[in-house]
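Students often ask why inverse folding is considered easier than folding. One informal answer: many sequences map to the same fold, so there is more than one right answer. In these notes we will look at a single instance of the problem. The structure comes first.
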């Protein structure tokens, strides 16, 4: 089993929106959980981590997109396309894993490279606009709560 470095949270991953940063941190935790689960003889454990990671990330993407939409971010369409493409690719890996293929390491590498790069570039790009849109929103808390509920349901809170 190859040695894979855990993902370290670092300042350059911070967007400056608490909710988004917390969710990104949670995704990093899931990637690390996946890295740690590789040695487990029971593939079900890894399978479970992969499916939770996907569900959480899909919820996060939805939440993020609702903030970009509210802020009328100009590049929301390409950003959404990137999210959908990512979901598709990660689901393909998950299916291959469930079918018994040994793709955990490839998946981890893809998640690491892809997600972290995405946060550092595309997510950073909407940061300033979404921050000012939230600051200008008199119903900021209500909006965030509603959006959270819409995409995460009662899952993810406190995660
Ligand atoms: Fe994103």
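Output (designed amino acids):
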């Amino acid at each position: 089993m190859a040695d894979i470095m855990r993902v370290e949270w670092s300042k350059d991953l911070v967007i400056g929106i608490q909710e988004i940063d917390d969710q990104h941190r949670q995704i990093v935790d899931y990637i690390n959980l996946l890295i740690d689960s590789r040695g487990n003889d029971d593939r079900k454990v890894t399978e479970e981590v992969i499916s939770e990671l996907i569900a959480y990330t899909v919820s996060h993407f939805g939440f993020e997109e609702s903030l970009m939409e509210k802020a009328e971010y100009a590049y929301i369409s390409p950003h959404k396309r990137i999210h959908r493409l990512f979901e598709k690719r990660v689901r393909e890996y998950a299916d291959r894993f469930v079918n018994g293929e040994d793709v955990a390491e490839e998946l981890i590498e893809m998640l690491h490279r892809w997600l972290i790069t995405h946060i550092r570039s595309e997510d950073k790009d909407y940061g300033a606009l979404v921050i000012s849109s939230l600051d200008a929103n008199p119903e900021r808390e209500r909006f965030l709560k509603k959006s959270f509920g819409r995409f995460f349901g009662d899952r993810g809170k406190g995660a």
